[in-house]
């Protein structure tokens, strides 16, 4: 189950932490543990945009150079020659450039580096596979070779022969700029706030994938933002460990929700996923794509918990599917956003539920390490910062248990949304251009069961939290989801919602603060 890959990712995280703890500011170039020569003072002086965003801490500046600056052609010290950033990139629509940096030369029988292409699900060189090309051993190899459609969803590895056995050197890399291939560059403007619903009048729709061209779905009426879901209608796009349902699973989830893990574990699954998703990105009207629902929860992304399955394996399989779907989408629409989706369980560490969900914080750590190791891409995040519990909108009078969950940052609601946003704004989580990732609140449910006054005040608070934390969208639930979960807005709640973006908004926001009993939003929001 990819033990070598998991160990490598763990080591990568440790190295990042060690570098961050040991570096000090210096006016002279220093040779870093990975062999890179870096001058923090020079880097700060010559990159004011980086300093404006991240400050002058030498640790942070070095991480920016390693993760972003090298790829952007920034110099690490005076007189340095711009480096070719490690990774796989499209130079144009017909040429791939693949490069690496080895702190020490890999062991080799013949002094040659071979370049192989591997499927997303392959962790070693299959017997009989022939290399794409080769070159003499060097610490900074750079090669180019032709782009083909299949290679958009493959990864590339430098390989040496050791004892006659092909051995991968470093991390295999995927193409990280598929947008070079896109004929479309669309990101439609939309209101900061919106509702989830079934038609184009709403800002958010669910899209159940079937693996066929348009799935019978009226794509002309898709909203700006859609969640791609797998309801197992086509077993090809369902992960092999999800196809037989619950049979034989020693740790089944409580309910069967008919939502399953996407399949990038074999070539048929990759082909089916990318065919439908690329078609949808090219022909549909959506430009924000959420891959799955609450992907840190197994019941929404079912996979059998047996045969060595672990949360590392679960996240790894999701990351593979995300990678190929990301490349399929971005190769059609360069302006699209592609997001993971998390529920509100952030850092609970509940042993009793360990087979049902992984904390969002742990999911992000593992997912980000996997994606970074294979080539950083511009993934984003869709959050579900519901109140705790879901059945009460009167969050300012929550019980002691619920209050402890939010105050202790174990769960994320709109009250402490900034905790998640700040965590994901750390240098190691930044997008390839060094900016904070695209973030939305794609589902916020505030019930009306305590009256439209309570619901209206809570809607105002959630809206204000998303705005002050710099999210790009907030999507509210607005219909009845069953007993105790009626989110329908009427009377004062509807008036509050309808005031957003109008001259009346300020009046309703002041009213909401008076209902909650505060004079400033900072008293309850962080």
Report on the architecture of this protein.
The protein has 526 residues and is of the alpha/beta class. 29% of the residues lie in helices and 17% in strands. It is built from 12 helices and 17 strands. The strands form 4 sheets. An 8-stranded parallel β-sheet has the order 10-17-16-15-14-13-12-11, covered by helices on one side. Helix 2 (40-46) packs across helix 4 and helix 5 packs across helix 6 (311-330). The protein is globular.
Main sheet summary: 8 strands, parallel
> Given the structure, what is the number of helices?
12
Task: Name the poorly predicted regions.
Answer: 1-26
Q: What is the name of the CATH architecture of the largest domain?
A: Alpha-Beta Barrel
CATH class of the largest domain: Alpha Beta
Quick structural gist:
The chain is of the alpha/beta class.
Ordered list of secondary-structure elements with their pairings:
Layout: H1 3-22, E1 30-31, E2 37-38, H2 40-46, H3 48-54, H4 58-69, E3 87-92, E4 95-99, E5 112-119, E6 133-136, E7 142-146, E8 154-162, E9 165-174, E10 193-195, E11 204-209, E12 225-230, H5 267-283, E13 288-291, H6 311-330, E14 337-342, H7 360-374, E15 379-383, H8 400-407, H9 417-423, E16 439-444, H10 452-468, E17 473-476, H11 491-499, H12 505-516
Parallel strand pairs: 10-17, 11-12, 12-13, 13-14, 14-15, 15-16, 16-17
Antiparallel strand pairs: 1-2, 3-4, 4-7, 5-6, 5-8, 8-9
Helix pairs in contact: 1-7, 2-4, 5-6, 6-7, 10-11, 10-12, 11-12
């Amino acid at each position: 189950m990819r033990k070598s890959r998991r160990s490598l990712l763990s080591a990568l995280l440790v190295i990042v932490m060690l570098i961050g703890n040991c570096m000090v500011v210096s006016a002279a170039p220093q040779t870093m543990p990975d062999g890179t020569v870096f001058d923090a003072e020079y880097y700060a002086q010559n990159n004011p945009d980086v300093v404006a965003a991240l400050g002058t801490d030498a640790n942070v500046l070095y991480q920016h150079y390693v993760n972003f600056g090298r790829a952007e052609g920034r110099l690490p010290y005076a007189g340095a020659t711009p480096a070719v950033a490690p990774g796989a990139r499209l130079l144009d629509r017909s040429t791939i450039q693949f490069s690496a940096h080895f702190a020490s030369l890999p062991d080799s029988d013949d002094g040659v580096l071979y370049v192989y292409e591997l499927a997303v699900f392959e962790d070693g060189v299959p017997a009989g596979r022939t290399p794409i090309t080769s070159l003499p051993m060097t610490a900074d190899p750079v090669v180019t070779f032709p782009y083909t459609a299949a290679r958009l969803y493959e990864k590339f590895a430098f390989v040496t022969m050791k004892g006659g056995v092909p051995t991968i050197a470093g991390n295999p890399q995927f193409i990280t700029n598929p947008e070079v291939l896109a004929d479309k560059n669309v990101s439609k403007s939309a209101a900061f706030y919106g509702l989830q619903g079934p038609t184009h009048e709403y800002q958010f729709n669910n899209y159940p994938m079937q693996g066929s061209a348009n799935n019978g779905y009226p794509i002309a009426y898709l909203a700006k933002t859609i969640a791609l879901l797998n309801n197992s209608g086509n077993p090809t796009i369902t992960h092999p460990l999800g196809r037989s349902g619950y049979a034989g699973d020693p740790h089944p989830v409580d309910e069967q929700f008919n939502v399953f893990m996407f399949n990038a574990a074999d070539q048929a699954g990759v082909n089916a996923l990318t065919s439908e998703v690329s078609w949808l990105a090219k022909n549909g009207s959506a430009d924000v794509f959420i891959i799955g629902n609450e992907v840190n929860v197994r019941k929404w992304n079912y996979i059998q918990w047996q045969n060595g399955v672990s949360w590392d394996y679960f996240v790894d399989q999701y990351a593979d599917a995300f990678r190929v779907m990301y490349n399929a989408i971005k190769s059609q629409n360069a302006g699209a956003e592609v997001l993971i989706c998390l529920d509100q369980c952030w850092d609970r560490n509940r042993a009793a539920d360990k087979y049902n969900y992984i904390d969002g914080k742990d999911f992000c750590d593992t997912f980000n390490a996997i994606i970074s190791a294979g080539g950083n891409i511009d993934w984003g995040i869709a959050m579900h910062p519901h109140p705790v519990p879901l059945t009460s909108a009167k969050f300012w009078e929550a019980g002691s248990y619920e209050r402890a969950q939010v105050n202790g940052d174990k769960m994320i609601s709109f009250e402490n949304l900034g905790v998640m946003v700040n965590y994901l704004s750390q240098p190691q989580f930044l997008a390839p251009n060094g900016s904070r990732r695209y973030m939305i609140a794609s589902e916020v449910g505030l019930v009306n069961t305590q009256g439209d006054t309570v619901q209206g005040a809570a809607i105002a608070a959630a809206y204000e939290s998303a705005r002050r934390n710099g999210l790009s969208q907030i999507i509210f639930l607005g219909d009845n989801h069953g007993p105790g979960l009626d989110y329908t807005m009427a009377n004062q709640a509807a008036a509050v919602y309808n005031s957003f973006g109008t001259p009346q908004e300020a009046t309703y926001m002041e009213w909401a603060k008076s209902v909650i009993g505060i004079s400033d939003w900072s008293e309850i929001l962080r």
